[in-house]
Structure formats: structure tokens, C-alpha cells
Here is the input.
Amino acid sequence: MAPKFRDVDQTTPLLHDCNNNNNNNNNNTINNERLSNGTVVSGSTNSSATTIVHLTAGGDRKAGKAGGALLADPVAGRTLDHPTTNLDTLMHMLNGNLGTGILAMPDAFKNAGLYVGFFGTLAMGVICTHCMHLLVRCSHELCRRYGRPSLSYAEVGYCALDSGPRWAQPLAASFRRLINSFLLVMQLGLCCVYYLFVAVNVRELLDYLGCPVPVLTVLAYLLVPLAAMNMVRSLKLLTPTSLVASVLAIAGLAIAFLFLLQDLPHSGSVRPVSSWSTLPLYFGTVMYAFEGIGVVLPLENNMANPRDFIAWNGVLNTGMTVVVCLYSAVGFYGYLKYGEQAQGSVTLNLPNDALLAQIVRLLMAVAVLASYALQFYVPMTILVPAVTRHFRHRALAEYGLRLATVLLTFVLAAIIPNLGTFISLVGAVSTSTLALVFPPLIDLLTLWPARTERWRWTVLKDALIIAFGACGFFFGTAKSLATIFAGGPPDGGIH
Here is the structure.
């Protein structure tokens, strides 16, 4: 069945940088010109896109694939005021992944065993990177079909169903809302964990300086800088914070390795394989660590040279190679060093009386604090258009929404009892779905109209990834909730 081409429902905006998005959907002026052969060329005065619409004998409108470089090459039709360079995007990529998740890797290895954790992390890193490639490639294909310069994650899901099997087309709008819901849960969950992580490590630092304060007090003091930072609306303007965060995170990890590599016990001192009952917690923590799926399309959509994003030696592969190697190393040596005493953040295992340990806590706290704004960017691009359209002064309403959302993350961070288990819960619920289930499903729906001779292998491969992600979702969520309700050890909570 050939895909049908029609205008995408615009109720969900694209995930664009507000300073890069020049299109105003409410004020577009459409000019129609009827050609001699009965073709109507529809163009927008505010858009670089041109769609050729053929009028059939019955008067039906059917979009064609001719007439513009945009449809042949969707990235050529992007007009950005403040595009990001490859280095900018790489910094954002590292910043979006080198957060609290990497510091929880020793705790993840504790739930899997030394060798299961190591090889499992490598395998899951490869699968997650492959799914990121699938998402970007499907976005490009669907941009060609619909004559759009770029699409958000939710719009990619909508277009995949809308041009896929006939039975799936009525579900397109619901699928878009589902993706946006998972994105909101994941990104706000990341923001809550980031917030709590910074507060816990600042508390440890203040204890070292002889000024003991409750974590709740530190959370309150952090409200002002977080609120100010999240008033920034441009992804380009967040590049300096991403650069600072990436440099500080790598510096903090380098110093942390000085502790991890000292007096390492024999590998036989820890379990090579853990019990089946704790593997779901391992899965959830590792999936939480691969937290960059939500920012993949926003980063690619805002690049000056988007073709460099998914090249074999491009930004995505380079960034994820660095990330997976660091994850595996921190998890392996952290678990080998601390064994069953590994906590929800490796910084909490460092000796409290060592100055270098306090420097690590400070560096990682500042790095994660700077990363908060990037994670906060994604839910704002979903919430701002949906909320501000009901207000006359939209800019004022947006700033109010940003402040209210920061306050929401403060409340959620204050009631989180267990940092390690909450990390696993966020990873199992949202990240596994967005990173492992939806991309291969979108790939199948996007390729459905063509169904080439390699279709069977594609179905088998995508189905295996979907099954893997779905199992992780169900078992990881159930185990995390059971641990939370059972009142696990407060490794990093406020109690």
C-alpha cells in the first residue's frame, strides 16, 4: 500500500529552538497558483517549504514528490537563525548522557554482577545507538514524504502511523500524545534526579567544611540558580553551559578514577553474575544512564551540518562511543572497588575526609547543575506551546510555566526516598520505552509502504529489540516499585 500524503496535524509543535523557529503557524499566508495542467502550487510566505498538490479528476488533493529540493533532501530546507556546530552538538550530546546515570553504574553492576554488567552495558549501548540512528533516519524519510524540514520525536511517531498501514492511521494522534507523555515523564524525572543529586553532594561537601545542613535546605537554596538558568530559551545559548558541564564531568571522573583504581581487590571478590531477581534493577539503571534519546532529534534539528550527525564517524557515533566506554569503566571499577557497598552515586562512596573526594563532589555537582537546563529544554518545548496559547501575554506565561515546572521538580526531589531506586524506575518506565520500543516500531511503520526484499530481516531485528525493551519495561518497573514500597536503603535520599 502506498503511503498517503497529507498535511500533518499541527496541534503538537516541532521540537525546535525558539530562536531558530521562524515559522508562525498562526499567521501563515498561503498563496495558491493554478498551473496550466491543473496543478496547484501551495507556498507559505513564512516557510521555505513548497508542496505541489495535484488535483485529480475527482477533485481529490494528493501531494506529490516533485518540485523542490526540500523533499529530495529534507535538511536542505532548514532555515536556522542560530544553528549549532558539530562541536556544539557533541558537547550537548555528552552533556545529555554524562549525568547522574554514569555515577550510578557501580550500583547497576551490583545488581547484575561484574561480567554480566560489563558486557551487558556494551551490548545495550550498541542497541541504544542503533535505535537513535533509526529514529533520525525515519525522521528524514518522513520529512521527505510530508515536505517538512524537520520533525520532533512525537511528530515522527505521528507521521509513521499516518503513512503506515491503514488500520494504524486512526491511532496516529494518540501515538503522538503517548510519546509526548513519556518524554515529559522521562525528562522531568531526569530533572528531579539531577536536582536531588546536586543537593546530596553539596550536603556532603558542607559537612566536610563543618556546616552540616539538611538536604531539604540545600534543595531550597538551589531553587534560585536553577530558576534563573531555566529562563534561557535558546539551545544555542545553552552551549557554554554544556561545554562547562562536559569539561567538569570529565575532570570529576578523572579524579574519581584515582580512588577507584587504588588498591583494587581481585575480581573474584565480587560476584561475576548476580541473581535474576535484581537484573531488572540493573536494566532500569543502565537505561536511565542512556538518557540522551530525548534530545537526539532536537540536537540534529538544530545543527548547521545535520548530515554529520549520523555519519559513521559523525557526532552520534563519536559521542556514544565515548559515553559507553566511560559507563563501562566506571561501572566495572566502581563495583570492583566497593562491591556490595556501592551506592546510588559513586561520589557517595568516596571517603568523606579526603579533599580530592570533596573536589569530585563539587565538580560533579556543578556539572550536573549545568546539565539540568539541557534536560529541562525538552519538556518545555512540549509544554510551552500547549499552555501559552491560552494566554494573551505568551512570553510572560512561558516564564511563569518555567518557574512552576522548576518548583515541581523541587517538590518531587524533596519526596524521593531513594536515589538509586528512583533512577532505576525512571529508566525502566520511560527511557526503555523511548529508547528501545518506539524507535524500532516507528522504523517498521515507516518502511511498511515499501517492504523491500530485506523486509523480513528488518521485522525480525526490530521485533527482537521491541521485545527486549518491553520486557525491561515491565520487569524493571515492577521491581523498582516493589523496592520503593518495601522501603529500600536510603542511598542518597533525603531521609
